Each structure stands twice: as C-alpha cells, then as structure tokens.
C-alpha cells in the first residue's frame, strides 16, 4: 500500500472560532471567550451553509447578484460583436462606417463586463474562516482570473476610449477573442466554486446544472483557440459553438440569481443560529 502524506492546515491546528478567529485549542469553556459564540458551532464537522459564517454568506449572495447583472452586460457585448461581424461580412461597404464606430462602443461595453466580472469573482473568493480550508484552490482560481480580467478590462477601456486601433481589424479580432476568453474563464472559475457550494446547500439539481455550464465553456474554448488535429471536426460545429454563449449566458443569470437567493436565506438562518448560541454578556 503506497504511503500517503497529508499536509495539515496550520490554522486548523489552532481550531479558530468561526466568528472571530480566536484560537479554541486549549479552551475548556463551551463558548468562545472573545466573542461568546458556542465552541461547538465552530468545531463541529457540519459544513452545511446554514451552519457557516453569516457575513461571508451575505457577501457571497451580493457577489452572485452582481455577477448575474454583469452577465447581461456580457450578453450585450457578445451580441454586438457578432452582429457587426456578420453584417460586415455580408455588406462590407455599407456596414464599414458602423463597424468602425461600433468597435469603440463594443470595447467599452466589454471593458465594463470584464471589470464587473473581476470584482464579482474577487468578492466570491472571500474567506469563510473555516479550517481546514478545503475550498482554497477554488477561491485562489477566482482571484487569479479576477486579476487577469482586470488587466484585460484596462486594455479594452483604454483602446475604446481613445482612437488607438479604432479601425484596425486586428484589434477588433483581439478584442473579440479577449471577450470570448473572459466569458469562458469567468464561467469556469465561478461555477467550479459555486458547484462545491451547491453541494453544501445541498442541491443535487443545481450541482448538475453547474456541471453542464462547466462543459459549455470548454466547447467554446476549442472554437476560440482550436487545436489543429481537431480543427476540422470543430469547424463542422462552428456556427453552434460561436453562438453557444448566447445559450449558456442566460442560464448563468438564472443560476446566479438562484444562488444569490439561496445564500441570502442561508445567511439569515446562520445568523439566527449564531444569535441563539452566543453566550449573554
């Protein structure tokens, strides 16, 4: 039998209070001496969301509501870039002036989407205060993607607010690819983490939908950056893949609104539990 090494969580060994972070390692009292929360509330193995940190849950609820609104902005940007690309391809001369003007507006809308997505993902990656922190890799992924999206948003805003590259077809295509990759990266980072949170609600149906949404961006990724050996195979489904975000972006809005409501309810239930199990002072 192979030897398995398990790396412990240093903070977990201190057994921190879920509310204030005070070490409960050598505490004999039934309540935290710092904030009064029941030590059993912090040390039990039940990680259902209604047993978690109410402020953290409220922050997640706000993040999901913001991400839902931002997805609508992304949908507008995606419709704009694909509509103009289609019209220019059919009627180049008639639509060229509108294409030049639309390029700037498209970049500004895309910048707003990417910046909003970055802020929402950063909020979603807030720490719970529970140790061991089993979901740290998912939160780190959200933060990394948020940082990259902030850089992409800055580029899109600067190029859209100035005349730089306003009629450059290469800049147009770069912006289009950046938008596609932003949608893909944001969806993968957010719903990989939300899928784990759905298991703690628990809701098997939402877990299944999150899994489907994680598959859809992967298909879009092959269209955005096709690998040569399978290029022809995916070109056959090119039209479907190109407009796949028009299908899964509205679904993400519905799911994010559901998460916002479910997390808000969990926050209220957790706050009542904390209040009931806090020692009077």
Give a structural overview.
It is built from ten helices and no strands. It starts with 9 loop residues before the first helix and ends in a 5-residue tail after the last helix. α3 packs antiparallel against α10. The longest helix is centred in the first third of the chain and has 37 residues, at 54-90. The chain has one domain (49-276). The model is unreliable at 1-7, 88-92 and 226-238 (pLDDT under 50). It is mainly alpha-helical and 281 residues long. Helices cover 72% and strands 0% of the residues.
Brief account:
This protein has 10 helices and no strands.
Question: What does the secondary structure layout of this molecule look like, with pairings?
Answer:
Blueprint: H1 10-14, H2 39-43, H3 54-90, H4 92-124, H5 136-161, H6 169-199, H7 204-224, H8 231-236, H9 238-242, H10 245-276
Helix pairs in contact: 3-4, 3-6, 3-10, 4-5, 4-6, 5-6, 6-7, 7-10
Number of domains: 1
Total of helices: 10
Q: Separation of termini?
A: 53 Å
- What is the residue-mean pLDDT, rounded to a whole number? 78
- The number of strands is 0
Approximate helicity band: over 70%
- Give the class from helix and strand content and strand pairing: mainly alpha
Question: Could you list the spans in which at least 5 consecutive residues all have pLDDT below 50?
Answer: 1-7, 88-92, 226-238
Alpha carbon gyration radius: 23 Å
SSE succession: HHHHHHHHHH
Largest β sheet strand count, sense and barrel closure: none
Oligomeric description of these chains: single chain
Percentage beta strand: under 5%
* Outline type: elongated
């Amino acid at each position: 039998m192979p030897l398995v090494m398990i790396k412990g969580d240093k903070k977990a060994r201190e057994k921190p209070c879920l509310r204030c972070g005070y070490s409960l390692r050598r505490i004999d009292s039934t309540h935290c001496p710092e904030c009064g929360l029941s030590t059993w509330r912090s040390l039990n193995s039940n990680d259902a969301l209604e047993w978690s940190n109410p402020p953290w849950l409220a922050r997640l609820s706000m993040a999901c509501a913001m991400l839902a609104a931002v997805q609508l902005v992304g949908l507008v940007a995606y419709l704009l870039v694909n509509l103009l690309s289609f019209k220019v391809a059919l009627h180049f001369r008639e639509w060229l002036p509108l294409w030049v003007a639309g390029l700037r507006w498209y970049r500004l809308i895309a910048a707003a989407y990417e910046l909003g997505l970055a802020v929402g993902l950063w909020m979603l990656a807030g720490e719970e205060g529970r140790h061991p922190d089993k979901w740290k890799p998912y939160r780190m992924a959200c933060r990394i993607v948020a940082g990259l999206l902030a850089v992409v948003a800055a580029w899109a805003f600067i190029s859209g607010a100035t005349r730089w590259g306003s009629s450059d077809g290469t800049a147009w295509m770069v912006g289009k690819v950046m938008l596609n990759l932003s949608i893909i990266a944001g969806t993968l980072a957010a719903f990989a983490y939300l899928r784990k949170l759905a298991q703690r609600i628990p809701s098997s149906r939402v877990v299944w939908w999150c899994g489907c949404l994680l598959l859809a961006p992967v298909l879009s990724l092959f269209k955005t950056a096709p690998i040569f050996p399978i290029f022809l195979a995916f070109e056959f489904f090119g039209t479907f893949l190109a407009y796949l975000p028009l299908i899964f972006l509205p679904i993400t809005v519905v799911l994010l609104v559901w998460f916002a409501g479910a997390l808000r309810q969990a926050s209220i239930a957790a706050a009542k539990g904390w209040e009931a199990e806090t020692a009077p002072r």
